[in-house]
Write a structure and sequence with these properties.
Shape: globular
CATH superfamily of the domain at 1-77 and 188-294: P-loop containing nucleotide triphosphate hydrolases
InterPro entries: AAA+_ATPase (IPR003593), ABC_transporter-like_ATP-bd (IPR003439), ABC_transporter-like_CS (IPR017871), ABC_transporter_ATP-bind (IPR050166), P-loop_NTPase (IPR027417)
Strand order of the largest sheet: 6-7-8-3-9-10
Strand content: 15-25%
Number of helices: 8
Order of helices and strands: EEEHEEEHHHEHEHEEHH
Pfam family, one: ABC_tran
CATH topology of the domain at 1-77 and 188-294: Rossmann fold
Largest sheet: 6 strands, mixed
Number of strands: 10
Protein name: Nitrate ABC transporter ATP-binding protein
CATH architecture of the domain at 1-77 and 188-294: 3-Layer(aba) Sandwich
Bound molecules: adenosine-5'-triphosphate
Domain ABC transporter: 4-237
GO molecular function: ATP binding
Length: 294
């Protein structure tokens, strides 16, 4: 059964000549328990897509459905892991996670809450750093806190917007494994936005390419039928993996090249009214005021 769906969704920004149609005719149906990776080009509209699923933004046309009902805003049923950790600098690791837990489980007893928070901090291997502040943590550790925070809210769906792209290869690899382990153990549904095909193959059940924008849309889904648990060094030797990777890469290269050929080289200029040289703001000049001229 589909847990979250996008039906004929389009999204644009701006008005008039500056209007950019970012996403067009997006159809996506994510099944309960599924791990879907959306692989897209830079600037194609990946974050817009996650924001639509989360309810931070709304489509111009089409529908975003959660359990068959229209999404009206963010909710505790969807936990988001952003690219830029978004931690509160004045709170410790423990309290950053607690803030989210307080919001979602207001009636939980303080003992139970403390146990719950520590469980998720432990799950991302941060127990020794529980009382540290974000500035005392490495980028990878901060991202772990944001993973723990999203998971501690116990959402049905994990929405991840390039959560690991800023990390070094080693940290990235270990967090990929951790996220997949927790997803399978806690039986979540996951949507991962990434620009890394290998990351998608390692983590997801399906990879769906997002074509380059403007009017980016979803391409055909590639089923990743490689047995779990997947180990990157082992699957690197796997012929099926190599074939799958080539197919996805070929598709992305082809849509990228086609987009370049057909791209209309019009430049959209901002909607400005010409102003004659002189004072920018009319009014009486005070002695101390500096007058700005073009
Ligand atoms: N709130 C907004 N107002 C105006 N334009 C926006 C807004 N949000 C995004 N855009 C534009 O929409 C396009 C897609 O942006 P989006 O952030 O969704 O893409 P992305 O694929 O996540 O980008 P990146 O790969 O750089 O992270 C970009 O051209 C961006 O400038």
């Amino acid at each position: 059964m589909a847990i979250i769906e996008l039906k004929n969704v389009s999204k644009s920004y701006g008005t008039g000549a500056a209007r950019v149609e970012v996403l067009a005719d997006i159809n996506l149906s994510v099944q309960e328990g599924e791990f879907v990776a959306i692989v897209g080009f830079s600037g194609s509209g990946k974050t817009s897509l996650i924001n639509l699923l989360n309810g931070l933004q709304f489509p111009d046309s089409g529908e975003v459905l959660l359990h068959g009902l229209p999404v009206t805003g963010p909710g505790p049923d969807r936990g988001v892991i952003f690219q830029n950790y978004s931690l509160l600098p004045w709170l410790s690791v423990y309290n950053n996670v607690k803030l989210a837990v307080d919001e979602v489980f207001p009636k939980m007893s303080s003992n139970e809450k403390s146990h719950h928070i520590k469980k998720y901090i432990g799950m991302v291997n941060l127990t020794p750093a529980m009382d540290k502040f974000p500035k005392e943590l490495s980028g990878g550790m901060r991202q772990r806190v944001s993973v723990a925070r999203a998971l501690a809210m116990n959402p049905e769906i994990l929405l991840m917007d390039e959560p690991l792209s800023a990390l070094d290869a080693l940290t990235r690899g270990s967090l990929q494994e951790e996220i997949v382990r927790i997803w399978s153990h806690d039986q979540k549904t996951a949507v991962l936005i990434t620009n890394d095909v290998d990351e998608g193959i390692l983590m997801a059940d399906r990879i769906i390419p997002l074509t380059p924008g403007p009017k980016a849309t979803l391409g055909p889904a590639f089923a990743i039928d490689i047995e779990r648990p997947r180990d990157l060094s082992a699957i690197n030797q796997n012929d099926h993996y190599k074939k799958l990777r080539n197919e996805i890469m070929e598709y992305l290269i082809e849509v990228g090249a086609n987009r370049k050929k057909s791209h209309d080289q019009r430049y959209i200029l901002p909607d400005l009214k010409p102003v004659m040289p002189g004072r920018v703001f009319p009014g009486i000049k005070r002695k101390s005021e500096k007058v700005k001229y073009f």
